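Standup notes
- DV: blocked on the single-chain target, sequence here:
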Amino acid sequence: MCRRYLSWQINKKCHPAESNCGHTDFQSVDKTAVDSQQLTNPRYTDLLQNFLQDCRFRGLSERTIEDYEYYLNRIFKRFTSDFGKNDLKAFVLSEVQRGLSPATANHYIRGVKAFFSYLVEEGLIDTNPFLKLSLVKEPQVHKPVLTPTQVGRLLAIIPEEGYFNVRDKTMIAILWDTAIRAKELFGLTLSGVDIANNTLKVNGKGNKDRVVPFGRKTKKLIIKYLKIRRDNGSPLLFCTDSGQRINHHNFQRTLYKFGKKVGLHVHPHLIRHSAATFLAKAEMPATHLQLLLGHSSLAVTQRYINQIVNQEGLQISHRRLSPGDRI
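- DV (later): unblocked, structure below
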């Protein structure tokens, strides 16, 4: 292996963009590395950017590319010189012991494996030392869901005034009311908002468009937001001050901050999953739920519904037949 490609220098200065109302603005990853130091070694900077460009060329999703950049930046902040498989394993294990979920910790391993595979393909190193590194075992757990009351508490904790507060509240309300993906939320456009018909045009997986409805409470929030939205020339409904696309990780941190204030651990997919679960329990027709969620086939939606129904059915059956209650 060419060791010269495994050493990087780190500049200890970081420049998060702060808004005038206490929020950290959702800067795009290519402008500001979230919660990581900027790297000064030009060779490393070029390699990372070339790797990300290659990911785009291969058609990887922007969410995957954002994850690669975010977790690789954190890895290279931690290791300022050469590191190997055992070093990475020790780092990931320490993150898990600090409370990071195995699923999230595995993003580090996936990012490093992909990056070094790219270096091999480019002829910069001979072999990928991380290729056979196993992922952290992820326990099979029952996914939690938020109730409408809990989501109401989450929205209520966000102040009514202030541009960023109104924007954040509107984004969260749309996530809950429409059950769209976070990536789809960030891609919403001004031209795709139809206030008269209470609908949003959503660009989903496979670059497929669909139209989803929203309720009257969400409509009020959207109208309020549009009245104060800053005109920066961006076609996006929600964007940074400079008109850039909102970064997933920064939005997730904002959700976590608000959730913590009301005793909830919240992330974007949890809101989508909770909304879908609520609708499935309310017996929304599978075909309607498929259209709303943007699933590629009805079979995918049906499996989703079956998981929810089976869990609910198990609890109902056990309450009726509980052996413990027969003692």
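- Follow-up: Confidence is low (pLDDT under 50) at residues 1-42.
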